[in-house]
Write a structure and sequence with these properties.
- The protein has about 450 residues and is an alpha/beta fold.
- About 40% of the residues lie in helices and about 10% in strands.
- The protein has 15 helices and eleven strands.
- It has helices at about 10-15, 20-35, 50-65, 105-110, 155-160, 180-185, 220-230, 265-280, 295-310, 330-335, 340-355, 360-380, 405-410, 415-420, 450-460, and strands spanning about 40-45, 75, 115-120, 165-170, 185-190, 210-215, 250-255, 285, 385-390, 425-430, 440-445.
- The chain has an eleven-stranded mixed sheet, with helices on both faces.
- Helix 4 crosses helix 7, helix 9 (about 295-310) packs across helix 11 (about 340-355) and helix 9 (about 295-310) packs across helix 12.
- The N and C termini lie close together (about 5 Å).
- The structure holds glutamine (GLN).
- Glutamine (GLN) binds near residues 175 and 304.
Length: about 450
């Protein structure tokens, strides 16, 4: 795979022997931020002066009283609350909104010594696959600024690829951590549904929303996951079931990639190479078919739009004042402040949930989702890991995809794990002949996050 990078644990050892290195480390990230301002990666930067930003960290390194993530520099997607910072969800509607509290995972990160460097750009309310629906303008891909970084956590993936932080926290409802990670050639991990607290994450589609982590190394991601998982849940959908570990001789499921006419040649080649490589390494491989495959993308868009229309009903303008301190015009508030894609989802969602159409669309979609989840459980009785491409194509040019349906197709391979609430990780392919490698996605069964991370690590080496 891509060349191994230094892990944060390695860096910590250096910082312990020479605490002033943490200052250099931070300055390097700051300078990378200044050099990539044109990429529009951050919406808000933490403006604490360096001395204050690093004071406790330095002291703890000097006294050797460091915590698990002491000095880890973290970027946070701007739909997650960080107390005292703006949280805009990349929407005009919340462009002045200030967070009053920390999301639970943010509290956990801070308590372990992590430092928040800024809030990253995203598609408005996390709806999109290219970061082009942001009210603050698109983010461009740090690997090639004519390309999109993916979405909706496009700023998050770009913040890692541009070397502005150790890890990025994003959210993944239908692929928003894995797809941008793939487009920016970094690693993106979505734990199973309910494994990380959603308290403080702005709701898009509550039965799918999941916090995810993007990083340069799997070790960094595991370290942060460990800390965030260890929180006292304030979230009623928390999954506190015990972890299950997968044995050392896993069976790997893969698909017949050649049958997809919308998958690009580059992605096909990289995918086939990975499967070939696994064969050479003597892994047991089995070709599988994804159950209910052709329904999954429509089912995802039906359920997520229905839930979004209900979640976004709270932005009614009643409690909001305009910049002169006057109440806003409630009649026009939503139409004036939501962007086009968000309106499309709300209108679709309201339609799907309306009398007469509820049974025709929503009930059926829920039914298929349940059936699919059961079929996936069965599939995982004989398979340990499922390997799919992360995306059907390599990153595309900014402003090149105009048709929403074509945009939605970017999520073809990521929505299955979301609908079934399964853990999944995207890693860049090794031996890729492409400038930006395609990525593969590994999916595993419920409660096997740690085995999945270990397996992904093994594949990388
Ligand atoms: N691209 C998908 C969508 O627009 C996924 C978004 C997400 O995971 N937040 O719905």
């Amino acid at each position: 795979m891509t060349t191994p990078k230094k892990t944060f644990r390695d860096l910590q050892k250096h910082f312990l022997s020479r605490p002033e290195l943490i200052i250099e480390h931070y300055r390097q990230y700051k300078s990378n931020i200044s050099n990539t301002l044109n990429n529009n990666i951050f919406i808000t930067l933490n403006d604490l002066p360096e001395k204050e930003f690093l004071s406790e960290t330095l002291l703890r390194y000097k006294n050797e009283t460091i915590r698990q993530l002491e000095g880890m520099i973290v970027s946070v997607k701007d739909n997650i609350n960080v107390r005292g910072m703006k949280m805009t969800c990349a929407s005009a509607l919340l462009s002045e909104h200030q967070s009053l509290y920390d999301a639970q995972i943010i509290e956990a990160l801070k308590n372990a010594g992590a430092l928040i460097i800024g809030k990253t750009n995203l598609d408005e309310f996390a709806m999109g696959s290219s970061n082009e629906t942001s009210y603050f303008g698109p983010t461009s891909n740090p690997l090639d600024s004519s390309l999109v970084p993916g979405g909706s956590s496009g700023g998050a993936a770009a913040s890692v690829a541009a070397g502005t932080c150790d890890i990025a926290i994003g959210s993944d409802t239908g692929g928003s951590v894995r797809q941008p990670a793939a487009f920016c050639a970094v690693t993106g991990f979505k734990p199973g549904y309910g494994k990380l607290s959603r308290y403080g994450l702005t709701a898009f589609a509550s039965s799918l929303d999941t916090i995810g982590i993007i990083g340069k190394t799997i070790d960094d991601i595991s370290l942060a996951y460990d800390v965030m998982k260890d929180t006292n849940f304030k979230d009623r959908t928390a999954n506190n079931e015990a972890d299950i570990s997968i044995g050392q001789k896993p069976v790997i499921g893969y698909i017949d990639i050649n049958k997809y006419e919308f998958v690009s040649k580059e992605v096909k080649n990289d995918y086939i190479n990975v499967i070939q490589h696994l064969k050479v390494k003597n892994y047991k491989l089995e070709r599988i078919e994804l159950p209910f495959e052709k329904y999954l993308l429509p089912v995802y868009y039906i359920i997520s739009s229905a839930e979004a229309s209900s979640n976004l009903a709270r932005y009614d303008g009643i409690r909001i004042k305009n910049s002169n301190g006057q109440p806003v015009d409630i009649e026009s508030f939503r139409s004036a402040n939501f962007g086009e894609e968000v309106k499309r989802r709300i209108l679709n969602g309201v339609y799907i949930l309306s009398e007469g159409y509820y049974d025709r669309y929503f009930s059926k979609a829920e039914y298929i989702r349940q059936k699919f989840t059961c079929e996936m459980e069965k599939l995982f009785l004989n398979t340990d890991y499922l390997i799919l491409p992360t995306t059907p194509t390599l990153p595309f040019k900014i402003a090149s995809v105009k048709d929403p349906k074509e945009m939605y197709r970017s999520d073809y391979f990521t929505v299955p794990a979301s609908l079934a609430g399964l853990p999944a990780i995207s890693i860049p392919c090794y031996n890729s002949g492409n400038n930006i490698p395609a990525s593969i996605q590994i999916i595993s069964s419920k409660n096997t996050e740690y085995s999945l991370l270990d397996f992904a690590c093994k594949l990388k080496n």
